[in-house]
Amino acid sequence: LRIREIVILRTTANMNCEYEWGVHVTVFADAAKLSAHQVAATRDLIIDVTLWPDVEINLLTAIDQLCQRGSMQQGVLEEFQENWTKEQQLEIFALCGTYHTISFVANNSALPNEIFGAPFPR
Description:
By secondary structure, the protein is mostly helical. Helix content is 65%, strand content 0%.
């Protein structure tokens, strides 16, 4: 749950999809044991290494690079491959891709935020 939500929050943050980001923050952040600082940090361009364990720093970096470049730089990829099984890697790729699509739809449909959804940190 935690890893899934980190991937979703970072992907939707990268895609500037406040609608989906806010729904996931409200519904899943507590269950995923994400602190308020970590949730807010999913929107930060620079990863605060004091908030995350090393494996999650690599995950956030990997998601950023996938969103921005479609691939990971060699060192990031090597660490990613060490941290996750092939099956987990494929699940992370699929989740990131799925939430790209969801973000495209929500953003281009100009969906208003859900009343219960968290807004992006200002």
